TrEMBL record:
Keywords: Kinase, Transferase. It comes from the Bacteria. This is hydroxymethylpyrimidine kinase. GO terms for cellular component: cytosol. GO terms for molecular function: hydroxymethylpyrimidine kinase activity; phosphomethylpyrimidine kinase activity. NCBIfam families: HMP-P_kinase.
Length: 265
């Protein structure tokens, strides 16, 4: 009989997100990222999307009672070291996840408030944006909206400091405002991390050519969750996540006829 190796379980990162059958974003992106960090990936599926690397063609949301069972079953069995929340799809799913995570206040949670795909297709029912604020934001260790989501969540606010203040007032502990779509004429991209009342850190990297990347937000939020699962502090985790995502985007490939996908391999 072959000898077995006594392998210590790596930290578990639970992603709660939608399926992207093209493999660029969503659960598929998250599991690839979690594997790249050497963590164990657990995954609860909030929605089945139909999409290719160009755009989203539709989605069907998991009923909230089924999502609740998926998440509760994993949390009861496995000591989860960090959670990433991505596409939720519906207000009911946001409430279900917020209720469950409230029972585990010690688990850090990175919340990517996914509303719309890069290609412009909707990834949320109309009532989700309003409900996110009262439910999941208070549970977010780090909230990672892109510029579009930040506008949608703050009634059109554009000044970064005001956006951050409003989202922090809703209960998020840290807000990372991603700079990829801001000032496209500038050579350097700056992502800014805010906590209540102050800017904690700013992270800069050279601008990459715009290849309409698919799955960059998913990769970043999950990479931050992996670093938190490894026990790193928030600022260090955000730096680690941004560095990983930058390297993945620099080495991105185009698997189909549409957008480029971060190389998380
Ligand atoms: N989650 C799912 C399931 C998706 O399909 C997408 C995009 O298509 C996203 C999240 C957001 O992707 P991105 O990382 O490009 O913002």
């Amino acid at each position: 009989m072959a000898e077995v190796m006594d392998t210590v379980a790596p930290p578990t990162v639970l992603t709660i997100a939608g399926s992207d059958p093209s493999g660029g974003a969503g659960i598929q992106a998250d599991l690839a990222t979690i594997a790249a960090f050497g963590c164990h990936g657990a995954a609860a599926i909030t929605a089945l999307t139909v999409q290719d690397t160009r755009n989203v063609h539709g989605f069907r949301v998991t009923p909230d009672d089924e999502l609740r069972q998926q998440v509760a079953t994993v949390l009861t069995d496995i000591p989860v070291a960090a959670v990433k929340v991505g596409m939720l799809g519906s207000a009911d799913n946001a409430r279900a996840v917020a209720d469950l995570l409230a029972e585990y206040p010690e688990i850090p949670a990175v919340v990517d408030p996914v509303l719309v795909a890069q290609g412009g297709g909707d990834l949320a029912q109309a009532d989700l944006a309003k409900v996110l604020q009262g439910t999941l934001f208070p549970r977010a260790t780090v909230l990672t909206p892109n510029e579009h989501e930040a506008h949608a969540l703050t009634g059109g606010e554009t000044v970064p400091e005001a956006v951050a203040d409003e989202l922090l007032r809703e209960g998020a502990h840290y807000v990372l405002l991603k700079g990829g779509h801001r000032h496209p004429e500038e050579e350097v991209v700056s992502d800014r991390l805010f906590s209540f009342g102050q800017e904690e850190a700013s992270f800069s990297h050279p601008r990459l050519p715009d290849r309409g990347y698919h799955g960059s937000g998913c990769t970043l939020s999950t990479a931050i969750a992996c670093a938190l699962a490894d026990g790193r502090e928030v600022v260090e985790s955000v730096r680690t996540g941004i560095d990983f995502t930058f390297r993945a985007l620099r080495a991105a490939y185009t698997p189909g006829h549409g957008q480029a996908v971060p190389n998380r391999l």
